[in-house]
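Repro:
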Amino acid sequence: MKTRYIILLIPLLAITLYHKSEAQVITDQEKQAEKDTVLDYLKKAQSLAQQGNAEEASKIYISIMENEPDNRDAVQGWLMMNMKRTPTGEEDAIILLDSLNKLYPENTGIIFFRAFVEAEYAHNEEALKDIEALLRIQPDDPLHYILKGQVLFEMKKYEEAFKAFDKATSLDPKRPDVYGMKAFALAKSGKFDNAVLTINKGLELDPNNPGMLYNRACIYSLKGDKINAMDDLKKAISIDPSFKEYARNDEDFKSFYDDEDFKKLTL
């Protein structure tokens, strides 16, 4: 089965969050103007970074971090600009984020991306501490529960992971990917029937999602249900042919490696 951490679901410049007190009365137009202004600055910083002007880009990202402590895009842009793709890249990224966190300890974007990097490189205990810190600040953000579920799954704390995914879907029931993540965890813990029921909920929201169709095929394969496994695999490949090669090396289809129908689908 295919899975990935939530950072890949957060496109740069896509999310800007604003927390205003009840005493502040801002019209919809003013809110949109503020959001547009931040987006313009983010685009400018991204352009400067691409041109190699890291110093000026960094000034813009830092300014946004100071004024918009819940804006993840500025942190992501700054991290992408400064993180080196080396064998010790994750350690360097954590050090960078630690230094930022000392300057801006309440910036949730910094804590979020540090938790992600920690989780991506299996520093799960540290990631969980950061996620709990995020939840104390933003208890109703589904992204925090999604990341928490993924970390708990990696720690083999399956029941706790299921609860985290359920909380995420209760906060944002229109996100099909969360159902897919929970189904992945259920399948890996041997709960195939529940996994199918769960991923079906995601496919109701996004019926042509090739990743979820592929993962459901994997679940059926693990169950020994060849008909449904091949049917879903065929649909996934018809939408995204790259799944053909992926399936050939996926151990979830190990029982069908010598099956003629599987071979035809994945040639």
